[in-house]
Amino acid sequence: MNASTSSIARSSFAAGTPRRFSWARLRSPASLVSPLLLLAAWTAATRAHWFSDQVLVPPQAVVDAFREVWESGEFPADLKISLFRLLVGFSLGSVGGVALGVLLATSERARVYLGPTFNLIRQVPTLALTPLFILLFGIGETFKIVIILKSTIYPVAIATMEGVRTIPRQYLEVGRAYKLGAWARFHRIIFPSSVAPMLTGVRIALGRSWMVLVAVELLAADTGIGQLMAVGRQMLRLDIVMVGVITTGLIGFSFDRILVGIERALLPWKPR
Question: Comparing C-alpha atoms, which of 115, 100, 116, 102 is closest to residue 150?
Answer without folding.
Answer: 100
